[in-house]
């Protein structure tokens, strides 16, 4: 069992969860999901929810596989920094989104943040390819696709903080 990785994910996951909880429950009540949903409306919003569910399931499967199975030094050298990058960047998403909403303009830092999350996910995929575990490759591919194409691609493109209901 890869105890170091499990601890890294558990400790690193706390700020991610707290940042989403802060946005959802503890932030100024003038913020809402509609402010951040961008072009995710109607069927696109439903598809996004399905994708998020697949990401969560994939993430759980990835964690089980990466923690339960032995990793080579090469895998550890890719995977551990990838988790650190992924989790530290994911915990900052709501901060950059909130700043953009308050400033009523989309920042490049938000895009950089989303791309760093995707870069972390790329490390997951590379580690899965090294393992030659087909289901793990599929799971990590979906996590990468969601964070790169859907979040950093479509969502960022369609996000318009100037049209927020705050203004």
Structure description:
With 167 residues, this protein is mainly α. The chain has one domain (39-161). It contains seven helices and no strands. The chain has helices spanning 3-26, 33-36, 43-68, 73-90, 93-103, 108-131, 134-158. Helix 3 (43-68) packs antiparallel against helix 7 (134-158).
In brief:
With 167 residues, this protein is mainly alpha-helical. Helices cover 79% and strands 0% of the residues.
Terminal residue distance: 51 Å
Number of extended strands: 0
Shape: globular
Computed over alpha carbons, the radius of gyration is 17 Å
Structural class: mainly alpha
Give the count of structural domains.
Answer: 1
Topology as a string of helices (H) and strands (E): HHHHHHH
Helix proportion: over 70%
If you average the pLDDT, what whole number results?
A: 90
Give a topology summary:
Elements: H1 3-26, H2 33-36, H3 43-68, H4 73-90, H5 93-103, H6 108-131, H7 134-158
Helix pairs in contact: 1-4, 3-7, 4-6, 5-6, 6-7
Give keywords:
mainly alpha, 167 residues
């Amino acid at each position: 069992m890869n105890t170091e990785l499990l601890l890294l994910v558990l400790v690193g996951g706390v700020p991610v969860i707290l940042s989403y909880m802060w946005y959802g429950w503890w932030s100024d009540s003038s913020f809402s999901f509609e402010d951040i949903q961008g072009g995710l409306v109607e069927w696109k919003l439903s598809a996004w929810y399905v994708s998020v569910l697949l990401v969560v399931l994939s993430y759980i499967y990835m964690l089980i596989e990466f923690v339960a199975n032995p990793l080579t030094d090469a895998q550890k050298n890719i995977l551990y920094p990838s988790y650190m990058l992924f989790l530290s960047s994911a915990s900052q998403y709501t901060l950059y989104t909130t700043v953009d909403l308050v400033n009523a303009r989309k920042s490049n830092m938000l895009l950089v943040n989303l791309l760093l999350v995707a870069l972390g996910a790329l490390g997951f995929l590379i580690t899965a390819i090294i393992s030659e575990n087909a289901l793990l490759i599929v799971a990590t591919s979906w996590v990468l696709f969601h964070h790169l194409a859907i979040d950093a691609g479509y969502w960022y493109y369609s996000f318009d903080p100037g049209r927020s209901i705050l203004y």
